[in-house]
Amino acid sequence: MNDITKEFFQPVSGMDLPRFAGVPTFMRLPHVTPDHPAYDHVQLGLVGVPWDAGTTNRPGPRHGPRQVRDLSTMIRAGNPVTGVNPFDLVNCADLGDVSPNPIDIMDCMDRISAFYAHLKSRGILPITVGGDHLVSLPVLRGLATEAPLGLIQFDSHTDLFDTYFGGNKYTHGTPFRRAIEEGLVDPKRMVQVGIRGTAYNTEDVQWGEAQGVRIIRIEEFFERGVKDVMAEVRAIVGSQPTYCTYDIDFVDPAYAPGTGTPEVGGPNSYQSIQVVRELSGLNLIGADLVEVSPPFDERGNTAWLGASLVFELMCVCASSIA
Asked: Using CB atoms within 10 A of its CB, is residue 218 exposed (0-12), middle (13-18) or buried (19+)?
């Protein structure tokens, strides 16, 4: 790799530099920009999208990437359960943030889509930290350029509504309806896990099921257990390219209170990690973690769980491309 060695892509160890010291990057990895000589060697890129213009109630996820970066300094390199060290398998780097336009939704989505289309053209598998859940739509626009993708969604909400506030089609409650309509996602290879909470109506669920989306409510999740549910998830998406989107409100707010639309009665933090580990072996082409909202959890416990989930996603994705 010319003068870029494998050691360049290793995270800084807490044994060498205290975790409270240095400039925080995702997982303490090098920050690599397109003009850096190491950019051509990046295989897995961590990206922040600090944007929450799709939020309909409590704002704050625009601050998520910065807090997750800070808390991710606690992550160590090895996964003792799966045996995976993603930093040894592939070249990982913090690719920085997509520069958002906080006052123009359409322009910001165009910026995000262009950023991810560029990553795809360079063969970099992206893992994103948002941002609200509308972030996933422009990411999918940038990645699903050849054929519709499978989609695994961990969430307490379907995000399949058509419009909000008299016709607005772009909020954090609508991204996957748009993704299906735009041919970015194959609804027959789409599964949503953890859906719960009170509802405006059943229009979102009825529309999704009519398209072929498999919706697994939290009651079914707990009745069947993680392994049984995730076996069905793997069977639905199969071996074709698949994207994973993880809304932190999938987790019970007792464990992840820092989010804009919490719903009680969800999985605990251990179960939230288990479902990611069960993605092993799938053909994942990218993933995101969204809706971490630091203003609602100043202690950072939600962001710490988010960083831990990103690491688990890294382990799965690195294994799929190594």
From this structure: buried
**Residues of the chain with pLDDT > 70: what percent?**
99
Classify residue 82: in a domain, yes or no: yes
104 alpha carbon, distance to own chain's centre: 23
Amino acid letter at 158? Answer: T
CA quadruple 282, 46, 305, 248: dihedral positive or negative? negative
We report the CATH number of the domain holding residue 94 as 3.40.800.10
113 in any annotated domain:
yes
Measure Cα distances from 132 to 61, 75, 159, 185, 290 in Å: 6, 23, 11, 19, 6
Token pair listed for 172? 């954090």
- Following DSSP, what letter does each residue of 156-203 receive, concatenated? SS------BTTTB--STTSHHHHHHHTTSEEEEEEEEEEE-S--S-SH
**Token pair recorded at residue 192:** 């949503």
Mapped onto helix, strand or coil, the DSSP state of residue 94 is strand
Closest CA to 248 of 23, 10, 108, 71: 71
Which structural domain range is residue 230 located in?
6-321
Tell me what the mean pLDDT of segment 128-135 comes to.
97
Q: Which amino acid is at 80?
A: P
Domain count, the chain: 1
pTM over 0.90: yes
pLDDT tens digits for range 182-197: 999 999 999 999 999 9
Indicate the DSSP class of residue 40: G
Sorting pLDDT into bands at 50, 70 and 90, what band is 220?
Answer: very high
Instruction: Tell me, yes or no, whether 81 lies in a domain.
Output: yes
Structural domain includes residue 246: yes
